[in-house]
Each structure stands twice: as structure tokens, then as C-alpha cells.
Fold:
Amino acid sequence: MELYYSALAFGFLGGVHCLGMCGPIAFALPVNRENKLKGTFQSLIYQFGRLITYSVMGFIFGTLGKGFSLAGIQQYLSIAMGAMMIIVVLWPSQKIGSIGLTGFVYKHIGKLKSKLGELLKRRDTKTLFVIGILNGALPCGLVYMALIGAVATGSSLEGGIYMFVFGVGTIPFMFGATMIGNFMSMSIRNKVQKAIPVFVVIIGLLFILRGLGLGIPFLSPPEKKLHIQENQTEMKCGGMSKCGGK
Structure:
């Protein structure tokens, strides 16, 4: 449960971050801002589209973590994911860019933004759901951090839920941007942006503590041993190595 709190906090800070990254999309959404009831419904359709994308990504990355969990190294996985969060924050962005992954990702973003531009010109409600889905796929540093958390869950379902909770955390600010516009001053947004790296490091440390299994309630529960049934035959035969054994 403590993992989901980190997802919600990631999302809440991500909502402020999104005002700068995805705010122009939210401001330009074809929602009815004169009819508040209809506008709210339309905005929620857009938000739901984003949640679907985040949940699917969380399911995929949670499945990746599940492989490590089945191998019996989930505790080490949590430590590794926490360390990765801290490294990404502390490692200079220039060195990260020199790896070449950034260019690989962004060369495909142009088509996505072009498609979003086309959809924003339409005025039908159904389009808002598609815009939300595509918006959720846009590159975002905090989404990447949340996906690291989804891997650390070691479960396909929990990874999906983790990212869903992350998406829920982004809704208040993104909803405000959709219905009100640019309602937060630049100075406040800059202060939050400066606090985000500190928060990510704290969450990374919490993941490391969780993996260490120090027996601290909620923060570092004791390591749980993974019990795997060897085969269905032993289960059906009451634990005997061969069916029909005396």
C-alpha cells in the first residue's frame, strides 16, 4: 500500500510539471467551457484516456518486474529501482543525453504531436478520449520515474494499478488547466519544479529501504520468501513425489 502513496505523490507533482509540458494541450482541448457540466464531462473523458495509457504502460512494466519477482529477487529489484531513481536525478542530463536514448525516443514524437494537432482541431467529444490516450504516451521524466516504480511492484496487476494511481494524482492540476486555463503562477511552478528532484531522491531511498527488509513497519517490511509450487502432480498427490505412492 505504501507504494501507491508514492505513485499518488508522483502524480500530484507530475500534475504541476504537466502544466508546463502538457499544459498547452489542456488549454487547447475542445471542451465546452461555458457549460460547466458538459465541459466537466468532456474533460473527464480526456483524463480517462490518459489513465488508460498509464495503466497499460504500468501493466507492461509490472510484467517485466514480475519476471524478476518469480526469480526470487524482488527485494533486490526494489533496491535497484530505487538506486536508479537517485542516479537519474543526480547524473548530469548532458551525460544521459549522450547515451543516445533521448534521440531514439524523440525522433518518433513528431508524428505523435502532429496527430494531436489534427485532433485538437476537431470539436467532437469522442476525439477527447483519443487525445487523452496519445497525451499519455508523450515523453515525461516523472512518468519514467513512475514506471520504475511500476517495475518494482513485481506484478503485472500492481504495476497497472500503480500507474493508474499516478494518473489520478495528475488529474487535479490537469483538470484545472482544462477548465480554467493557466491558473498557477510561474513562480510557484518553478518552486515545485525545484522540489521534484528532492522528492524523487526521497522516493528512491524509500524503495531501497523497502528492498532491504529491515523489519520497519510500512517502510521496510521483512523479506517475504517466495513459495513456488514445483508442479501440479505433487499438489494433486498430496505432496508425494509420485501419484499412487503408498
